[in-house]
Amino acid sequence: MKLRRPAWSGGTVLARAVSSIGQVRWPGIAYVALLASSIGVFLAGAHVAATALIDTQRSRQLGELTETALRRSEVAIDYGIAALDELIQRGPMSCDSVSLQAVRLHVYQRGTVKDIRSVSRDGSVLCSAYSETLEFDRGWVHRNDMLPAADEAVRLFRVDQFFGVALGVLKDVDASRALVAILGINAYLYDIMPAELRDHAEVVLDLRNDQTVAQYHSPAQAGSLQKAIVFAKDSDRYPLRTLIRVESEAFRQWHQEPYIPIMGLALVLGVAFGLLLASAATRPQSPIAELDRALAAQEFRPYLQPVFNMHTGAIVGCEVLARWVRNDGTILPPSRFIPLAESSGRIVPMTWQIVSAALGELQPLLKQDKNFKVAVNIVPHHLTIPGFVDRLREVVAKVKVAPRQVIVELTEREELEDLTKVVTVIGSLRNFGFKVAIDDVGTGHNGLSHIQQLGANIIKIDKFFVDSIGRDPTGVAIIEMLVRLARELKMNVLAEGIETDEQISALLACDVEEGQGYFVSPPVPIAEFFGLLERHRAALASATSGWRAVPARVA
User: Fold this and answer.
1) Are 180 and 116 in contact (CB under 8 A)?
2) Is 450 helix (H, G, I), strand (E, B) or coil?
3) Which CATH number fits domain 30-185+251-278: 2.60.40, 3.90.930, 1.25.40, 3.30.450?
């Protein structure tokens, strides 16, 4: 019997070859697609953000210029009112030639004031310092047509004259008479526009009845503005407003300088984010497997943030914080791996790895300074695992550190499922000399009754309340309440996340004893921590005007 090669054999070989090529190409295509998408998203977002930022900056600057024009107008009116007040203080203005001569001298000494007139209660002119100027008036308004200011004794109105427009300022003298100052508002007072907009904009001073009193635009500007954008500002004191009108196209082209750098930065960030995203997406290993590999390679390292005395500034301890330091030098913050470590149960071996490394490397410092304390974070689940206290005692004994120098921080982020057992473990820790702190107080699951039952030594005020200092008075009230509670329970108080001198002052006023935060230093590797500690102590020793005068980042 003759054997035949199956007819489908060649097709199978070809299909396998195509499949193999596809397995090679598709990850590369996905990598490029993710990178391109990331760049596109960043550039699109940057375009929107840059446009909004530039538009906001342009609008803010033109708003400030509108405010400037208004303030100049108010000063001119204030000047006219001051001139009238001086005449009123001298006594009633008489219309005889001697009195008018004195008024003319008064006007001559004030450049903005063109004329001063005595008027009746209804606004009719009785006499003028320069009577000949009355011939140039095209009309005169009745008192009821004059616009009252915030000060009811002052009214403003437009005076139409053959050679231009002036501003009338009326000030009541008594129930029957008033004085009017005719102000010549120089249009060049409003020559305030940036050079790029000068030929494409105008500045206008209007009364509230829409009568224009002064207007400035560049001599090079021809005709009326097309499709203008208007910025307006009303006076709180006088019935007038200033307006700036800018051609839309000129407004859009102005201040475009930041656009290119923003887009360039977005391109760089898009490439960087795309590379990270593509690398993460095409990485075959699962996150939990990555945690196990990192644990085996001891890539989880302790970083230290100083704890300082609020009164003296001296560094009296530190908190151990976890960082994932990859073999390629990449450093991942806790938010990138702690939640997964907690949910997968890897948090327990990770904690022991970090605590052992931290206490071992800090052992010389702890032996030298018996008052120096190290705080380590323990989640409630880990605390209640059988043998926790014995394991901690073994770790501490191995590096020959006194238990009283070790603080176990119990975070409130995780709900206490077995409060009775937690209280028992805390009591056992305290019996062996360890200190116990309650972390994230006020933002986690534990209520005030839990704080009372736990029997800890220290409460740590969460950064959320420290950040509210200067912004929300309720934050300070809560801090004061927590401090009073701690005093009643004979507990010490430590505030987290301190960044400003204002926060230091407020916390001291609340009687907070210790703190930590970027005000002194961010978390740093242990090797850098020793240098930071030496420099900080040297800076404190040489400081002559209080510890807060020491440079905040001595690192």
Assistant:
1) yes
2) helix
3) 3.30.450
Domain with CATH 3.20.20.450 in the chain: 287-543
Residue 470 forms beta bridges with which residues? none
In this structure, the strands spanning 406-411 and 373-378 are parallel
Consecutive H or E run containing 312:
none
Q: What is the largest CA-CA distance in the chain?
A: 146
Residue 156 backbone dihedrals phi, psi, to 5 degrees: -120, 150
* Helix axes 347-368 and 388-398, enclosed angle (nearest 10): 40
Instruction: Extract the tokens encoding 410.
Output: 């119990």
| Residue among 93, 119, 124, 125 nearest 106 (CA) | 93
Query: pLDDT tens-digit profile of 316-373?
Result: 999 999 999 998 889 999 989 998 998 898 999 999 999 999 999 999 999 999 999 9
Among candidate residues 385, 373, 435, the one with its CA nearest the CA of residue 410: 435
Contact 294/300 with Cβ under 8 angstroms?
yes
376 - beta bridge partners? 320, 408
pLDDT number for residue 20:
38
Q: What is the dihedral of CA 445, 448, 453, 459, to 10 degrees?
A: 80
> Is 163 or 248 the better-scoring residue by pLDDT?
248
Residue 300 has pLDDT above 80, yes or no: yes
Report whether 216 contacts 202 (CB < 8 A): yes
The C-alpha angle with vertex 525 and arms to 523 and 526, in degrees rounded to 5, equals 110
Question: For residue range 504-537, what is the model confidence (pLDDT) as tens digits?
Answer: 999 999 999 999 999 999 999 999 999 999 999 9
Cβ atoms 154, 210 nearer than 8 A: no
Average pLDDT, the chain: 86
Q: How confident is the model at residue 161 (pLDDT cuts 50, 70, 90)?
A: confident
Query: Distance between CA 450 and CA 553 in Å, rounded?
Result: 37
Count how many Cα atoms sit within 13 Å of the Cα of residue 486 in the half-sphere of its side chain: 25
- The CA distance from 555 to 257, in Å, is 36
Task: Give me the amino acid identity at 499.
Answer: E
3-state secondary structure 24-46: HHHHHHHHHHHHHHHHHHHHHHH
Residues forming CATH 3.30.450 domain(s) in the chain: 30-185+251-278
Q: What is the DSSP annotation of 147-160?
A: EE-SSTTEEEEEEE
Q: Residue 275's pLDDT is what?
A: 83
> For the domain 287-543, what is the CATH code?
3.20.20.450
What confidence score (pLDDT) does residue 445 get?
Answer: 53
pLDDT at 24 over 50: no
Whole-model pTM above 0.70? no
